Task: structure prediction
Amino acid sequence: MLDEVYTAVATPNIALVKYWGKRNDELILPHNTSISITLDETFKTTTSVAFSGKLDRDIFFINGEEQNLDSHEVKERFKVVDEMRRMAGSAEHAVVYSVNSFPTAAGLASSASGISALVFATSKALGLDIGTSRLSIIARQGSGSACRSLMGGFVKWKKGEKDDGSDSYIEQIKGNGYWPDIVAFVAIVSEAKKKVSSRAGMKQTVETSKLYRERPNVAEEHAKELEKAIMEKDFPTLARITMEESNSMHAVMLDTFPPIIYLNDISKEIIHAVHELNSGGNIAAYTFDAGPNAVVVTTEKNKGDVYNALNSIGGIKDIVELKIGSGPRIADRQYEAEINAIIEKNR
Ligand code: DP6
Result:
């Protein structure tokens, strides 16, 4: 008999209020609340999972390449599967077949869509009937920012107070249909893999940056202000907080010793171009994660001007227009042939 295959599709999110720094490295508990928008399926991860009694180990493929589950980095992320298997009381091994529709490790967190698709598909494959907040607690332990991709629209990841992390989960502020006017341009500046991983980088920041002492308070204040701006559909305020947040996070990165510098000259040109566009009031906002690629958030009315301004900057490789997405979904079984071939080969 063939083992049943479950497929989930998930997308990246972009933080408007940033997560950078953990109060617990093991459980991945953040020093501050963060808020993101989940992006549409222009960039996505499709992940199929099957559990089989025929295997004596887990097998994990990304983009057709088998991952080494003995490697620390892979194991750290794959532990979400162990956790769910334990919860379901299953002893079967998994085959995971995951495909990204965008460049891995290019500063656009493919880890967020990857882990949320993995968590979503695995929970279905194991028949785990748990709500999104519990799923987000599991996803968070694979990669912090990934938990925010488990819902669509505007999503808040609460920092929580408890040591066991049981109150550090996500909540949807508003769904993807709430503010359909919002447009996000992803400006691809570099497709190179980042030099310092977010995980290592944020640990160094917490350990060495004196400026960071104030960062959790700043972010917490921004999170409150941003939530209010979202509720009031106040774009100029949303834009200001988004830019201040990006700048605040990159400031503590620079204040890390040795400094962490993700922005390059083209990123800086984007920053200046957006401020020029905003000279008469905020119509756009830039935000950068752990890389030089920008996400520029604007509205339908102004997207033509914003696109033209970005397009006139030399060195931007691609500009991709996205909308706010609806979060992960279960899709029809995909990669069934690949998964069955893997099981046959390894049984
Ligand atoms: C810069 O979620 O990749 O994108 O929890 O260690 O896996 P780990 O880190 P990760 O950090 C991403 C941080 C960021 C900002 C953000 O998305 O909030």
